[in-house]
Amino acid sequence: MKSKPKTITAPGADYSIRVLGAHNSALRDFYHALLLWRWPTTVVAIAAMFMLANTVFAFAYMLTDGVANVHPGSFLDCFFFSVQTMGTIGYGYMYPATTTAEVVVVAETITSVTLTALATGLVFAKFSRASARVLFSDTVTISPMNGVPTLRLRLGNQRNNQIIDARVKVQLLRTEKLKEGGVFYRMVDVNLVRENILSLSRSWTALHVIDESSPLWQATPESLASDEAELHVLLMGLDDTTLQPVHALHRYFSQQILWGRQHVDILTERDSGVLELDLRRFHEHAPTEPTPSFPYPKTVSTKP
User: Fold this and answer.
1) Considering 107, 240, 244, 261, which has the largest number of Cβ atoms within 10 A of its Cβ?
2) Among residues 203, 197, 185, 191, which one has the least CA distance to residue 151?
3) Rg, Å, the chain Cα set
4) pLDDT in tens, 108-164
5) How far apart are CA 104 and CA 247, in angstroms?
6) Kindly report the CA angle at 172 between 179 and 165, in degrees rounded to 5?
7) Averaged pLDDT for residues 77-106
8) Are strands 140-145 and 257-259 parallel, antiparallel or unpaired?
9) Which residues contact 264 (CB under 8 A, 6 or more apart)?
């Protein structure tokens, strides 16, 4: 099959990728798209295929002119007869009266069984497909923690269930100019203080210590912007309700990495002893002061 240019919009990105030379499989790609589309879009697509198939067979019945009790040349009567046949309704008022019409009915029956099986499998697959509702903080912050420069990003589970054995992986994607000339897109692992927790119920802050082994060592806002740096974050775990693996992917661009700030605390212990989690402040952050061991770049302002 001849390949056609395909444009892909990356999740969370403000740009699109134009893919050339990719092998296309229209039927498989369409089924995969139906699994990814929202339910209203999927229902409309199934209804459109149903209407299209009945329209084709309605024209076939008009050409055969072999359906009893149909007004001469009436497309609507043929269309409604096709719907009754495909839906195995069979009111009995209209029925095939010729051998040619019977052959068309057989063809429509085979088509009906196939479309019904595909639609049933698609609906079942969409219902049984587990998905995570993970919330990522709008920004990543860099500020001292116990005097050590630390990158922090916050994740949250928007469902009331738990993600068991939640694991987070972070990679830094940046451009690198080669000595031989040209540009290379390099991915570097960003090691976290803790990459997994037993369960993610509501909120978790992942930490990365910026030391000499860190890919962010001696980085500045200007250097990250110049290198077109991106942070890719992947969360994986097991949904405790469906017992199926779930995952969520997010990316941060250089302008979303804030220096000299930290996420505000959303946990508060009240006088009654109740621990309160305020998700309304999930994305909020506050300024911090530099330390002698971590002086902020000159372009970083600690003002609110």
Assistant:
1) 261
2) 191
3) 29
4) 999 999 999 989 988 888 888 878 889 999 999 999 999 899 999 999 998 888 999
5) 47
6) 150
7) 93
8) parallel
9) 281, 284, 285, 286
Structure-token pair, residue 243: 């017992």
Q: Which residue has the tokens 């050409």?
A: 63
Per-residue pLDDT band at 11 (split at 50, 70, 90) = very low
Q: Which residues pair with 232 in a beta bridge?
A: 171, 251
Residue 117 to residue 187: CA distance in whole angstroms? 43
Give, as one character, the DSSP assignment of residue 229. -
Distance CA 112, CA 32 (A): 21
Residue 201: closest CA among 86, 292, 279: 279
Q: Are 124 and 35 in contact (CB under 8 A)?
A: no
Residue 257: strand pairing partners: 140
Tokens of 18: 């134009």
DSSP state of 264: P
Residues making up the chain, counted from first to last: 304
Reading the block at residue 270, the tokens are 């009240």
Q: At what angle do helices 75-86 and 39-64 cross, to 10 degrees?
A: 120
To which residue do tokens 């698609």 refer?
122
What is the C-alpha to C-alpha distance for residues 202 and 274, in angstroms, rounded to an integer?
16
Residues 6+ apart with CB under 8 A from 214: 190, 191, 208
* Residue 30: band (very low, low, confident or very high) from pLDDT cuts 50, 70, 90: confident
This prediction's pTM: 0.73
